[in-house]
Amino acid sequence: MSFNDVPVFEPHLFEEDDNAKELVCKNIINKLITQQITPSQAAEAVDEWVVRDSTTKYDKFRKRDPPFTLNPGGNAFDDGPNTCGLVDMVIRIVAHICSAYPPGHIVQDSLVEFFQALKALPRHDAPDVTYKHDLTEDCGNDECGSDKCGTDDLTFEGKVTLWAFGTKSYSWRNWDFFNEAEDIAYPFSDVEVLGSEKQLRWRNLQSFISRLTALELLDCSCACALPYLLPNHVSYPNLEVHKMGGPRRITGDLVAAKYWLETDKIRKFVFRQCKKNLDSGPGCHTYWNMSTWNQLKSQLSFISSSERFEQQIRDLAQSLREKMESEE
């Protein structure tokens, strides 16, 4: 099978241990990916479910005597209004299934349009249980953030704005895509077996998340395949030791990473981020800097000139390097 083939894989949407909330959300997503409803209809259904669930639980807690108290053994985030948790669930489900669909597939388009439809909904708030203090600060409770955190550290009067894709408050919600990338493209995975499910899912994931990033829905730079092409990446092969598998692994990563460089909009995003020289910044942006940009160009030159790689891969590397140079 060549890397241009476009099979669709089993999305593994439903799991045996799905709870009631997951089943509600997944049934909506299932109707979307089976084309029973449109992205806009799916967005409206998900929004209605999130607001209804959180509001109902908030009202129940408010009516308790005394108000907003947990039952013995209760968990505030399971029993109370947990809007953030439901939003995370929606994104996590999409992150888990998106690699099943190849670039240009109608379901990939539908999933992107689903996020766009959520973002297009009028901004509105929903109740949310949260901590009274900033979790990045020391509150004096060594177990804060765990199930053992005292109820005194919690408030049921929090509010979450739905659906603020593209804003700072949603910027950290990309980590489910990072986890999917880690699950697919770990060192010595079948990404190096061209035409394998792992290799094609890696390509599919990169196609999807580059679109989310370019559309300013979620910045998924943390899951980007471009750093996998650099010799200092943990998954980069030793070409002297792995003379066959090494070039195949680089090929698999290049076929996936190309979606960050081929189209003008996402390539310009990458170049802008590199020009900001964010090499000392926190989180997933640490590799966006001009040093990385130049290393990528060097790697593409290496691939395009090395007889270790098939001619179509060498041509792809040359084309991507030329596109990078056009930004400078």
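The record above closes out task 2.4. Task 2.5 opens with a second protein, given below.
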Amino acid sequence: MVSRHPIQFNDYYQQIYGSRWPELLASLNQKEAQVLLAPFSDERGDVEWLPGCWWLTPERSSWPVERNDEGLLRYYVLDPASVLVARALQVNSNDQVLDMCAAPGGKTLVLAQTLGQEGLLEANELSPARRARLTKVIQQYIPKPLRQRLFVKGKDALRFGLVAKESYDRILLDAPCSGERHLLANSSELKQWKPKRISSLSRKQYSLLASGIEALKPGGRLVYSTCALSPEENDQVIA
């Protein structure tokens, strides 16, 4: 129910979405749809519009942990939007690719799937704890030969435009954001929510995007994404 949430939070989104907000809020409180991604496999899956993925059903959630002949984990759980975002980058076989804010690693797996013999992928994460999780995912899922062309970094993504100007053919910026679904699931964070949080994130997102654009080669492609609803973190950042 809307009344369970702080007045500031509801008022902010009500002003943006009007009569649509109660429906959007209800959808955020529903269980998130997830898929099983089978990286580095020829398996088709059962998500018609997302090859290589299966819907995560209650039955499949109880599947035992499976490993392939190389000892790598077979399936990675993530939301379908994450797969779409990474594939939208349209990586070519010899591209130099940067995942600017890579943890926990699901999108990195999708990008690595499309990397060719001459391509390189840099997965960047500033936070040591999140970077450790990212490294573990890479080791658990990506074949060793391919890992030789995948580099985990701990750089400040705000500086890529200065220290790596025009260095990458493809850049994915899945920017830190409000993440309303996560916020609604965390009562302590929700109680502390204020509109200025969105403004602060928006400024950081803009700076990250500017850094990414500077690091992109002429003619390259950058995909900017968030899991936020606020236009201030989406359209207004790229406008």
